[in-house]
Design brief:
Elements (H helix, E strand, L loop, with lengths): L1 H11 L20 H12 L3 H14 L3 H25 L6 H6 L4 H33 L3 H9 L13 H16 L1 H29 L9 H11 L5 H9 L12 H13 L18 H30 L10 H8 L5 H33 L17 H17 L6 H23 L6 E4 L3 E4 L6 H5 L7 H27 L1 H5 L3 H23 L16 H15 L3 H25 L1 H24 L1
Helix pairs in contact: 2-9, 2-13, 2-15, 3-12, 3-13, 4-12, 4-13, 4-17, 4-22, 6-8, 6-15, 6-16, 6-17, 6-23, 8-15, 8-16, 9-13, 9-15, 10-11, 14-15, 15-16, 17-22, 19-21, 19-22
Organism: Sphaeramia orbicularis (orbiculate cardinalfish)
Main location: membrane
Keywords: Amino-acid transport, Cell membrane, Glycoprotein, Membrane, Transmembrane, Transmembrane helix, Transport
């Protein structure tokens, strides 16, 4: 029984080979690097550029929002570099799901894929809801008022009314995606082009009509603004507001460095979406070069757009007068360009359209990859004659449409971020493991199954490892990576919950954080000394292990800052996924069947050898 249990747990860590025997891609390699950049920019540069900039500038960063976006872009680039290396090494469909499958094993691959499905389904529903709401605003909320009057839904957790418009939009785009990948990408490129054109207009207008003095507003001017905005306040109350940073203290950093960094944490979510490029591995003409280049270029374009729009916005009017919901139309009204709000509306709808396409495109690909590997239900891997994953596209679209019809999505928005950031963390871990992985040989022993040649563990082996990667050095990195994850989690919790104690320089908090940080640095140095695999790729993450570990820390810190309700719903989702995996996926895993065939061939060969010898 114990041996069977050990074999079962060992089977959960089975890895998928890079080129599995018998698996042939049926997708058409028709996408270019430009197509990938359009897909990445479209999915990343969504409605956030039209709304998030005003919220962050008004409440967190002020004019220093451009620094917030710079910090967020650099942090996102760390995750992008990790994805780029895997895109060069594993040019297959599946994104983070596949990358974790070939590196850390099947059960973690399923967890990662299930997280991505969560992120994409909720992302599809929320973006479609935003598209519907933006369009409805242009026609004076006719749709919302009619549905609230005739089909109200007052139950807790449900939407106030069924959004048929958003659901129809999802199914329309699902139909386009199911029809063909090239047609979908062309449509995405057109919408992205319109969006970028509108953003260029906004940026140019800001630099022409803007006032540089809006970046250096004095504290006295802020105080006067408070008096104008609320004449009922006394002077003492105004001074209290200044101290409490309700309106900031003026200058380029009105909310000081803390506000700029808090803004950077929020702006980080604006760069989520580039990972959709990594799901196109079997549809790109030259994936080993096109995927890394597409990821990096899309992040660069998105940063320039966010940087330019936020700079333009804070030049057009003082940061404390910005509208947090519709900052750009209000800013153009401030300078007397009321008609420009229609251009902003067109750009916003195009941005939402590309964002919706960008989140639905990878959703179907991840489902297809998991079904092809046997971890999800077989019908999901059906391909049409036009080489498109029809079933997975339509099914995932239908689920998202039902969600947007029935549920209040405000409470679920954070779940979308959890799924994506979890995948970012897994990919950073996988880069550490993959770059130091030893491609060991194995032998078969009849009484215990597959066993690996091992080496004795020594502390000296950590400090003075051999010049080449071995199984022991690979295992050392695995152990050290687990230690790093533990340390990063504790540090993230401490920095999230005990930040006030650190600011007050309380001895216990400073001492604890210092000890943990020093231990983390020591662990990083030991990993750095371990030999790396000599297998090269078209693109490799520079600065290993620093960049992946920084990415892990950023992602973990963002996750621990989420609320309890988000984590409760997340645990329910993961529990449902694990039930599916252990009830279905384990028994239908294609990789398990491959290993059983290999094992049976070895046994048959041994029997034949014994017969021949007799």
């Amino acid at each position: 029984p114990l041996e069977s249990l050990l074999r079962f747990f060992w089977s959960l860590t089975r890895k998928k080979p890079l080129d599995p025997e018998g698996e042939e891609s049926t997708f058409c390699r028709c996408l270019t690097t430009l197509d990938l950049v359009g897909l990445g920019v479209g999915s990343t540069l969504g409605a956030g550029v039209y709304g998030l900039t005003g919220e962050v500038a008004r409440n967190m960063s002020g004019p220093s929002i451009i620094i917030s976006f710079l910090v967020a872009a650099v942090a996102s680039a760390f995750a992008g570099l990790c994805y780029a290396e895997f895109g060069a090494r594993v040019p297959k469909m599946g994104s983070a799901y596949l990358y974790s499958y070939v590196t850390v094993g099947e059960v973690w691959a399923f967890v990662t894929g299930w997280n991505l499905v969560l992120s994409y389904v909720i992302g599809t529903s929320t973006v479609a809801k935003a598209w519907s709401g933006t369009f409805d605003d242009l026609i004076h909320n006719v749709i919302a008022e009619y549905l609230e009057e005739h089909i109200p839904m007052d139950s807790p957790g449900l939407a106030t009314y069924p959004d048929f418009f958003a659901a129809a939009l999802i199914m329309l785009l699902a139909g386009i995606l199911a029809y063909g990948v090239k047609e979908s990408v062309i449509l995405n490129t057109v919408f992205t082009g319109v969006n970028v054109t509108v953003l260029l207009f906004i940026i140019i207008a800001g630099f022409i009509k803007g006032d540089i003095n809006n970046w250096f507003i004095s504290a006295e001017a802020v105080l006067s603004a408070i008096v104008i905005l609320d004449r009922n306040l006394t002077l003492e109350q105004n001074e209290t507001q200044i101290e409490e940073n309700d309106f900031g203290v003026g200058g380029f950093f009105p909310f000081r460095l803390d506000g700029t960094l808090a803004g950077a944490a929020t702006c980080f979510y604006a760069f989520i979406g580039f990972d959709c490029i990594s799901t196109t591995g079997e549809e790109v003409k030259n994936p080993r070069k096109a995927i890394p280049l597409g990821i990096m270029l899309s992040l660069l374009v998105c940063f320039l757009a966010y940087f330019g729009v936020s700079a333009s916005l804070t030049l057009l009017m003082p940061y404390y007068l910005l509208d947090t919901r519709s900052p750009l139309p209000v800013a153009f009204e401030h300078i007397g360009w009321e008609t420009a709000k229609y251009a902003v509306a067109v750009g916003s709808l195009c941005a939402l359209s590309t964002s919706l396409l960008g989140v639905m495109f990878p959703m179907s690909r991840v489902l297809f990859a998991m079904a092809r590997d046997g971890l999800l239900f077989k019908p999901l891997d059906y391909m049409s004659s036009r080489q498109s994953p029809v079933t997975s596209t339509l099914c995932s679209g239908a689920v998202a449409a039902v969600m947007v019809l029935l549920f209040d999505l405000k409470a679920l928005v954070d779940l979308s971020s959890v799924g994506t950031i979890f995948a970012y963390t897994v990919i950073a871990v996988c880069v550490l493991i993959l770059r130091t992985m030893y491609m060991f040989s194995f032998r078969y022993k009849e009484d215990s199954g597959f066993i690996h040649r091992s080496e004795p563990f020594t502390v000296l082996g950590l400090i003075k490892p051999p010049s080449r990667s071995t199984r022991r050095t690979s295992e050392n990195v695995n152990i050290l990576t687990i230690i790093i994850l533990f340390l990063v989690l504790i540090l993230s919790v401490l920095l999230s919950d005990s930040l006030d104690s650190l600011r007050r320089r309380e001895v216990w908090s400073l001492l604890l954080v210092s000890v943990l940080a020093l231990t983390l640095v020591l662990t990083v140095v030991i990993i750095w000394k371990q030999p790396q695999s000599r297998t090269k790729a078209a693109f490799m993450v520079p600065g290993l292990p620093l960049i992946p570990i920084v990415s892990i820390f950023i992602n973990t810190y963002l996750m621990v800052r989420l609320g309890e309700e988000t984590w409760i719903i997340y645990c329910i989702w993961m529990a449902a996924g694990l039930i599916i995996y252990f009830a279905y996926g384990v028994h239908h895993s294609v990789q398990q069947q491959r290993q059983q065939e290999i094992l049976q061939n070895i046994i048959n060969r041994n029997i034949m050898d014994e017969v021949s010898a007799a």
